[in-house]
Structures
1.
Amino acid sequence: MNMMQMMQKAQSIQKKLQETQAELEKTEYEASTGGVVAVCDGHGKFKSIKLSKETLNPENPESVDDDTIEMLEDVISTAIKQASEKATAEMESKMKAITGGINIPGLF
């Protein structure tokens, strides 16, 4: 394989990687357990959480109003997103320290 073929192959791989990353970002994955549904995108980034009335009060689910559920979902979502942002920022900082500030695609 000559240098030109290697460059073309690298460009082809890079294009496929970018397309796959874009596709994953649009894809949502759901998991549920015990009346709680969590949603993440294909990069593992948290998107949302849904709680059931039964989860909050199994003995009397009708006593839980929709506003309470919405408030809890918002508070939990915000906390998860903030923790994720902190972790990402710390990871990026540590990786930049190791790489001397060089941005290596796919590393962070």
2.
Amino acid sequence: MTSINIKNLSKSYGTTQAVQHLSLEVKKGELFGLIGPDGAGKTTVFRMLTTLILPDEGSATVKGYDIVRDYKQIRNCVGYMPGRFSLYQDLTVQENLEFFATVFGTTIKQNYSLIKDIYEQIKPFSNRRAGKLSGGMKQKLALCCALIHKPEVLFLDEPTTGVDAVSRKEFWQMLAKLKAQGITILVSTPYMDEASLCDRIALMQAGKILSTSTPEQIIADYPTTLYAVKAPDLYALLQHLRQKPEIDSCYPFGEYLHLTLKEDTNITLFQQQLKTTFPHLDWQPITPTIEDSFIRLMEEKGNI
């Protein structure tokens, strides 16, 4: 069963095409990740699906409700956590929760079981104003407010941006628990390492979907052998490699360079020749990451 169904959705701001003919399906109870850098169009997709803006073309449904015709029904059955902290900063934690519960005609007590694990972490600060909370605590409060009316579909737009590594880990653990309760979750993130925590992902760039599959399958679809190389002078090595006709792609990745070779390259000979210039060369084949796959797909689509 499909919770979110998007067909040929497009949205432009003036001459800028934020989303271009996007089609996507999210299954009921799925934790689905929309992965891409800033400016890829992720927030625009979220704002259309939560009925905050209208699409220029195409259609989409959430729980079978059309995002244009049935906006009232959609707003009652979804929870939305925007990328920017949007709660009332002058209200306390408790007051924010009570306000959002009242808006949806419910109470904290009525749906407490759904937010209990998250709320227990911010309960000691229940009388603190929301604007005075840390980044991680703000995100937990925002998630509680998005869940207070027991939504069937949860939209989370870059929920871990700007929070520390520990809070990021805790947040994804919370999402796993919510998924186990049958809530469909569509989450966006620019962090490629978070992609592996989703059931399925869509890699997005310049308003278009590059690929949609499980994280494991996207990595398995990487078309060639990837190598990690380094030398004491990494920049000189990068400049040298990019001038070699045998190189298919080469880019910095942490303390290494990641590279692929053209099909007809004699790898052993090429490696030996490289070591004459860089005697302390470290060269090893590696398993690609989601980020490597994303870079490869952008190269193939001509986006970089």
3.
Amino acid sequence: MSHDEDHVDNGIAKIVRMANQIGTFFESKPHAEGVAGTAEHINKFWEPRMRRHFFEVVDAGGAGLKPIVLEAVAKIRRPGDTVPPEGANAGAPGGKGSAAGEAKAEIAASQG
């Protein structure tokens, strides 16, 4: 295995580990709240590059992901999606803001 392949594998393992840590935290909540909280956390705090790697794992079968994380997938925004998944936090009223996936440049352009 080349150094580049090792780096990719380590990055994927890190994404799986991080997603599972979030899922573990939200397992202490009632089930529906835990699933929603897992998705909301990833949507709010993971940059598009991280979510892209996350969805590479999901699209390949989700190996290693906890069940709560896999259930949250339907509410997690894929990078580049313009419409938030059903039940996802849509950001500020009107679907604006960084929580809605709007880039900082788009926010600045709309304000001035």
